Amino acid sequence: MPYWYYDKKDLLNTPSFRDGILNEAENRYRKEGARFIIDTGSKMDLGYNTVATGVVYFHRFYMFHSFRTFPRYITACCCLFLAGKVEETPKKCKDIIKVAKSLLTEQKFGIFGEDPKEEVMTLERILLQTIKFDLQVEHPYGYLLKYAKCLKGDKAKLQKMVQMAWTFVNDSLCTTLCLQWEPEVIAVALMFLAGKLSKFDVVDWNGRIPKHNAWWDMFVEDITMELLEDICHQVLDLYSPQTQQTGSDSPPNQPPAKQPKNEKKPSVTPPTSASPIAVVSKPVLTPIKNGADIKIEPPKVDMRFSYPAYPPLYPPMYNAPPPAIPAPRLPIPPGPPIIPYSEPPPANRFPPVNVPPPNYYAGMPARPLPPRGPIPPGPPPPRPYYPPP
Amino acid sequence: MSSSSTSPPSLNSIGDVNALFQTAKKYEELNVIGTGAYGTVYKARDLHNGGQIVAMKKVKVALTEDGIPLSTLREIALLRQLEAYRHPNIVRLLDVCHGGQSLERDQQLVLFLVFEHVEQDLESYLKRAPGPLSENRIRSMSYDILSGVDFLHSHRIVHRDLKPHNLLVTSSGRVKLADFGLAKTYDTEMKLTSVVVTLWYRPPEVLLGVSYNTAVDVWSSGCVLAQLHTRAPLLAGSCDSEQLHCIFRLIGRPAKHEWPQNVSIVVDSFPDYPPQDLADILPRVHPQALDLIKGMLVFDPAKRLTALDCLEHPYFTDHAPH
Ligand SMILES: Nc1ncnc2c1ncn2[C@@H]1O[C@H](COP(=O)(O)OP(=O)(O)OP(=O)(O)O)[C@@H](O)[C@H]1O
Predict the structure, then answer these.
(1) Which terminus of chain B has a smaller tally of CB atoms within 10 A, N or C?
(2) Domain-by-domain residue ranges, chain A?
(3) What average pLDDT does range A328-339 have in this prediction?
(4) Ordered DSSP codes for B83-150
């Protein structure tokens, strides 16, 4: 089975990096590609699941290919196109291209060539091969709602916290967090962050047992404070101005062979303000330096005022508040879901974090199911079966 | 492929996209294991994994104006997702890739589904068995089949085509289900007319052409379970109508009120067969096994046991291992 999680050092030594693209530039390309998928998706009324799936495909794709070989906006269109089909919210390729054209400058759209549709369609097969047909992707949204339902406290404050966490999850798509951690872990971390920022102190929760020190112990075992904070910082760094001004506008398209490495690094130019997807460089949250006293404090600005400053970053779809708690509109498409249980197993990496088998098969009769992940040799199978005589 | 001289090189100008992946080089085809109605299964060597022997199913998918059909992508996504459970009675899906050559010309994509290679299928296993299987072996194989079916059903997958040919038997005698989950992909494709599709495991609702659900797999499993005891097919009809005659001769012609609506064949076109005693057809079979099979071969799909019911039948629970 394909394995989609990477160490930090793997994330530095990517195909793009080996192709002479600086990490900072790559991060910007990833961010722009992700944002472009979000913008295109929301303009086409695609739901957050489809958009998020497209973005995850995008990040995975560039763990195998260089931004120099595959221009990010074409890949982005293709990822959204494929995610639309997989999530059963299909959009015609030509319609996606139409929206892309409206969002990109003429110069940027030029990369799509004379036959943009053929370009995207050709890439579909490459994309499928690259992501190894591993099409079903889970996102933190569902976990966020599920976890929130268990927390006790002031309803309005809880609601506000979830809403903020939801926004952080949206923004986390612009980072490589989905290449580092399972959606459960990201959901916990960003709810933790939202709790801090909205001053919602969770003191009690349903299902609390003495060995739980914090609410998240119930959902993800052995998650450390260091990890939580590391994840929060990766999202908060998005709002820091320093991370936004590196890398050439588009990587040179010549085959790398003609270009000896380290001789001609991508030029560092500030992003052009003409870009319709220009990022807002105004910092909203004070970036917290790594290594400094890692206490996450609410920003000096009142959150209610700082959030409205975001909209250029947040597409309309995300302005909609997340489903209400405690009776959420679950992020499940209307009608009987085709896939009742969407639960890929966590990979057995990083021993410290162990996601317990959740019991979220709500709505279905409780039935024993195999445990997540490879069935270990030790524990008994879900139901007895006869060993070969 | 057009490539403009002014704009940057387009993807289409990356001459051989396949060279980027070398799928063809990943697996070395050894020989054909079998050809089904919808695809060919090859024995192959996984060159990236120490030459491990795998079973590779080649399926041709017709491309639409918008590329690979949604239904095929959905089905593959689900198969991949199921694989995460590593159910002991489901054949392992190791890899999915595509061949991709001459796509533009043919408007079709060759998909490769790479499975673990399993020694033999139940058909050849039963053929090769020197004599009747032991009671324990039959019970264990029956349980394996039903566990696999129940697993699929709990994920809303209907196998639709359970038969000894699609049930694989490992060297340690475990049974694993194969060849499921691509029904819609198959449907969009031209069937090879030369391949005869066996009707022996088809339930009456499928033969009558009315809507069906997971209960079809319970019927098919019932036929297979009976076959484990006798090593011969239980209901061996040679055409749709003869298959129905075989079924009614065994379970009796259904009453008028049980006959589904909107069926072109009327119930009176069949003689009023009385039900037979399963014990006469399956002599020396444990009464609990007979009771289970009887509950699986019920005309009305709604009254048939479910796979989970079957697993909880005393035939299994009274004889738990150890
Ligand atoms: N993983 C596997 N290992 C070994 N043999 C296999 C494997 N999967 C399938 N086979 C064998 O390959 C042959 C063809 O299988 P396939 O599923 O294509 O065809 P089928 O069941 O005859 O056809 P249909 O598609 O009409 O159901 C069968 O004999 C089957 O037992």
Answers:
(1) C
(2) 8-130, 138-240+297-308
(3) 31
(4) HTT--TTB--EEEEEE--TTHHHHTEEEEEEEEE--SEEHHHHHHH-SSPPPHHHHHHHHHHHHHHHH
pLDDT tens across B100-129, in order? 654 455 678 889 999 999 989 999 999 999
Estimate the crossing angle of helix B287-296 against helix B135-154, to 10 degrees: 30
What does the pLDDT average to over A191-220? Answer: 86
The verdict on a CB contact (< 8 Å) between B17 and A111 is: no
**For B134-156, what is the mean pLDDT?**
96
- Percent of chain A's residues with pLDDT above 70: 61
pLDDT band at A368 (very low <50, low <70, confident <90, very high): very low
List, in sequence order, every residue forming a beta bridge with B177; answer none if it has no partner. B90, B167
pLDDT tier, A213 (very low <50, low <70, confident <90, very high otherwise)? confident
Residue B78 to residue A339, Cβ atoms within 8 A: yes
Of B114, B18, B185, nearest to A125 by C-alpha is B18
Contact flag A342-B81 (C-beta cutoff 8 Å) = yes
Its ipTM equals 0.82
Give me the architecture of the A8-130 domain, per CATH: Orthogonal Bundle (1.10)
Question: Average pLDDT of A49-76?
Answer: 97
Q: Which residues of chain A neighbour B73 with C-beta distances below 8 Å?
A: 82, 85-86, 135
- Residue-level pLDDT at A277: 31
DSSP secondary structure letters along B44-96: EEETTTTTEEEEEEEEEEE-BTTBS-HHHHHHHHHHHHHHTT--TTB--EEEE
CATH topology of domain A138-240+297-308: Cyclin A; domain 1 (1.10.472)
Which residue range forms the structural domain that includes residue B50?
Answer: 14-116
Same domain flag for B193 and B309: yes
Q: What is the CATH number of the domain that holds B172?
A: 1.10.510.10
Look at residue B57 and tell me if it is in a domain. yes
Summarize pLDDT for A61-71 with one digit per residue, the tens: 999 999 999 99
Say if residues B200 and B219 touch (Cβ distance below 8 Å): no
Q: How many domains does chain B have?
A: 2
A355 reaches B (C-beta below 8 A):
no
Q: For B189-214, what is each residue's pLDDT tens digit?
A: 544 444 556 899 999 999 998 888 99
- Rounded to whole angstroms, how far apart are CA atoms A94 and A98? 6
Is there a domain that residue B8 lies in? Answer: no
Cα A324-A280-A54 angle, rounded to 5 deg: 55
User: Whole-angstrom Cα distance, residue A331 to residue A326?
Assistant: 14
pLDDT of res. B231: 96
- A185 and A144 Cβ atoms separated by less than 8 Å: no
The finding on whether B91 has its CB within 6 A of some atom of ligand 1 is: yes
Residue B161 falls in the annotated catalytic set: yes
User: Which residue does chain B place closest to A65, by CA atoms?
Assistant: B20
State pLDDT tens for residues B51-92: 999 999 998 888 888 999 999 999 999 999 999 999 999 999
A:12-71 residues touching chain B, CB 8 A cutoff:
69-71
| Partners of B52 in the β-ladder | B46
The answer to whether the CB atoms of B66 and A1 lie below 8 A apart is: no
Domains A8-130 and A138-240+297-308 agree in fold: yes
Which residue has the least CA distance to atom 7 on ligand 1?
A: B55
Bridge partners of residue A354, in order along the sequence: A221
Query: How big, in percent rounded to 5, are the helix, strand and coil portions of chain B?
Result: 40, 15, 45
Q: What are the residues facing B59 on neighbouring strands?
A: B111
Q: Which among A153, A195, A144 is positioned nearest to A323, based on CA atoms?
A: A144
Average pLDDT across chain B, whole number? 87
pTM: 0.76
Residues of B in contact with A375 (CB under 8 A): 85-86, 88
> What span, in angstroms and rounded, lies between the C-alpha atoms of B276 and B168?
31
Residues B110 and B154 in one domain: no
Atom nearest to B197 CA in ligand 1: 26
Distance CA A73, CA A36 (A): 7
